[in-house]
What we know:
alpha+beta
Amino acid sequence: MQTVLLSNTEHDRKRFDCGVDALNNYLKVIANQQSKRDNTRTFVLECEADHSQIVGFYTLTMATIDLGALPNKLQTKHRHSTSAGLIARLAVDKHFKGQGVGEWLLVDALKKLLSASDTVGFPLVVVDAKAGVEAFYQKYGFTAFADEPNKLFMTIADIRESFK
Ligand SMILES: CC(C)(COP(=O)(O)OP(=O)(O)OC[C@H]1O[C@@H](n2cnc3c(N)ncnc32)[C@H](O)[C@@H]1OP(=O)(O)O)[C@@H](O)C(=O)NCCC(=O)NCCS
């Protein structure tokens, strides 16, 4: 299995339904525009039987770090850093939920961000979780920011360690 960049012509974005309208609409209307402008990159996992069908997707970009919301030790360690990799969106089509696809997509996204950090250097990965989905990310090592329980982070050092 591998993710590919979302394509306007090859992927049937209208068919995708993760049960959250905001995420469906993002994929249908916004994801390609944002990618064309180099603001984000959206990767999709295609259905093996029909490559136009999107099983799941995630969107990556960068975010600024809110240093004050990090634990003291990390504030000191990263006080000269301003950027984090951001998993801005991640969703699985209803028909494929509960089969490990969300986990696979998260791992794939983290591998891409870890690889990017080898070149440009940033200390954290941040996710904006929808309400009720925080536990999904916590399961894989993310910690909620003190001031925003829906926003979680994981250090690149911990991500690197988890892939050893
Ligand atoms: C959240 C989502 C990505 C999970 O995808 P999935 O393919 O169903 O998840 P997986 O089958 O890979 O589950 C992996 C593990 O996470 C757990 N999990 C799944 N959804 C969860 C949730 N909402 N909260 C907590 N844990 C969750 C599963 O129980 C499983 O744990 P287990 O291995 O101990 O059984 C998917 O339900 C989804 O797209 N939801 C709608 C969109 C959304 O809310 N996206 C998140 C935006 S930040």
